[in-house]
Write a structure and sequence with these properties.
Order of helices and strands: HEEEEEEEEEEEEEEEEEEEEEEH
CATH topology: UDP N-Acetylglucosamine Acyltransferase, domain 1
InterPro entries: Hexapep (IPR001451), Hexapeptide_acetyltransf (IPR051159)
Pfam families: Hexapep_2 (PF14602)
Shape: globular
Helix content: 10-25%
Largest sheet: 8 strands, mixed
Structural class: alpha/beta
CATH architecture: 3 Solenoid
Family: Belongs to the transferase hexapeptide repeat family.
GO molecular function: O-acyltransferase activity
Keywords: Acyltransferase, Transferase
CATH class: Mainly Beta
Distance between the termini: 60 Å
């Protein structure tokens, strides 16, 4: 029992220290935000994180070339082992959730892997949910407000507000209440 308790205390202490280190190095971190251990920001001064966010362990925020800006809104959650590419700017809206092992890319090389990267800006809408192991490719520049990306999806184009997408390539499979063609027709 004691070793288990000691491990739990050590884990909490390690995460509290990690949060304080990131608060000292990142451009802006809102109150109530927790940033766990083993989170890597390529250019911390280009990162702004809102209030009450949860940034789990194993997050890699990297860029191929000069990094763009990363803005994370209030109440957002990024789960373990997510990779965020900052070659272009990336904005994650309030209360957005990015599930574990997902990849968000903001650049591509066309058909030549050795060419200079082309950067794209990307916005993840507020209240959106990106399911685990999803890949959001660079040509998808917007995941709409309240959109849902199904687990394991490969998103190659923009996702409208309130859309539920799934598959590879991801296609619209439904709409959240109050969104989509039926909602537009009734207003």
């Amino acid at each position: 029992m004691v070793p288990r308790l000691a491990l739990a205390v050590a884990r909490r202490l390690r995460n509290a220290i990690a949060t304080q280190i990131h608060k000292a190095t990142v451009n802006r971190v809102g109150t109530g935000t927790k940033i766990f251990h083993s989170v890597f920001f390529i250019e911390p001064k280009k990162v702004e994180i809102g209030k009450n966010c949860l940034i789990w362990h194993g997050i890699a925020v990297d860029a191929e070339g000069p990094a763009g800006l990363l803005r994370i809104g209030d109440g957002a959650q990024i789960n373990p082992n997510v990779t965020l590419d900052l070659t272009g700017h990336l904005e994650i809206g309030d209360n957005a959730l990015i599930s574990e092992n997902s990849f968000l890319y903001t650049h591509d090389h066309g058909l030549d892997p050795r060419s200079e990267p082309t950067a794209y800006n990307k916005t993840i809408g507020k209240n959106s949910w990106i399911g685990m192991r999803s890949i959001i490719l660079p040509r998808c520049q917007k995941i709409g407000e309240s959109a849902v990306v199904g687990a394991g999806s490969v998103v190659v184009k923009d996702v409208p507000d309130g859309a539920i997408v799934a598959g590879s390539p991801a296609r619209i499979v439904g709409w959240k209440d109050g969104f989509g063609p039926k909602a537009a027709a009734s207003s």
